[in-house]
Amino acid sequence: MSKSISAAAASSSHNLIGRKPPFARMTRRLLLYAVSIFFIFGPLSSLILWSLAEKWFWPHPFPSAWGFKYWHQVFEGKMLSSLGLSFAIAITVTLLCLVLTVPLSYLIARNRLPFKHVILLLFLLPQAFPQLPVFTNAMVFLYRFDLVGTLTGLTLIHLVGAIVFSVWTLVSVFQSVAESMEEASYMLGGGKVYTFFHVVLPMAAPGIIASSLLVFLYSLDEFTGSLLIGAPFHITMPVFMYNAANGYEMQVASVTSVLLMVPGIILLFFLQRFMRSEYLAAFGRV
């Protein structure tokens, strides 16, 4: 009895020694949060500083004059037309991707197609190589049809990368929809078309929304293809920002970056709500 009491006391004292005081744990957590915030928001804070800096001379760590002069300059210039063009192309590409890839992804997910993994791999090929040579070859191809410098060509070059995100995401979404629900619909007399529109699509709706958000964000931020195919006739927001930075207009480029960042942050918040773990678990499964 005395041995067991002494053993319990020794174990208790050992646990107390091994347990760190609350102040040390709290300090460690605060340090981890501070380091994480620094690495995440450090580069972004530089953009905000530059967007509000009217005068900033080396080696001063902060601007000597603050204001919204360059914000007014950006809104009075051609930025709004570039912003509108970027949103219009992103919406068009998202809708086209939905029309093209929803039925295609459902067929890939539900049917035992020969060489299915090869078909999915083909969609990844444009992303497996550096973007510049891929888009340069696409530009040579589009020149043959006189599509360079046109809105049609700009939309097509955005589709090259957007379809990859859409197909791979939607295939995993449809694979996560239980086939037993479709079989139940068939047993109750529902046809394939009725089952697809009334059973499959409602169950896959969150994944379709998540895929659409990914495609929209990709198209909104796409730069290389927009520069090669659209410029100088159609200037999207990323190209507008590049031109400003290339001309050493750091304040204008920073204001443009902040404006381009806002819809991305908002849509990523919605993406987190619609992207489910089962979609990620089925991602890449054939």
UniProtKB/TrEMBL annotation:
<feature type="transmembrane region" description="Helical">
    <location>
        <begin position="195"/>
        <end position="218"/>
    </location>
</feature>
<feature type="transmembrane region" description="Helical">
    <location>
        <begin position="250"/>
        <end position="271"/>
    </location>
</feature>
<feature type="domain" description="ABC transmembrane type-1">
    <location>
        <begin position="83"/>
        <end position="271"/>
    </location>
</feature>
<keyword id="KW-0812">Transmembrane</keyword>
<keyword id="KW-0997">Cell inner membrane</keyword>
<dbReference type="Pfam" id="PF00528">
    <property type="entry name" value="BPD_transp_1"/>
</dbReference>
<protein>
    <submittedName>
        <fullName>Sugar ABC transporter permease</fullName>
    </submittedName>
</protein>
<feature type="transmembrane region" description="Helical">
    <location>
        <begin position="30"/>
        <end position="53"/>
    </location>
</feature>
<feature type="transmembrane region" description="Helical">
    <location>
        <begin position="120"/>
        <end position="143"/>
    </location>
</feature>
<dbReference type="InterPro" id="IPR035906">
    <property type="entry name" value="MetI-like_sf"/>
</dbReference>
<feature type="transmembrane region" description="Helical">
    <location>
        <begin position="85"/>
        <end position="108"/>
    </location>
</feature>
<keyword id="KW-1003">Cell membrane</keyword>
<keyword id="KW-0472">Membrane</keyword>
<dbReference type="InterPro" id="IPR000515">
    <property type="entry name" value="MetI-like"/>
</dbReference>
<feature type="transmembrane region" description="Helical">
    <location>
        <begin position="155"/>
        <end position="174"/>
    </location>
</feature>
<keyword id="KW-1133">Transmembrane helix</keyword>
<comment type="similarity">
    <text>Belongs to the binding-protein-dependent transport system permease family.</text>
</comment>
<keyword id="KW-0813">Transport</keyword>
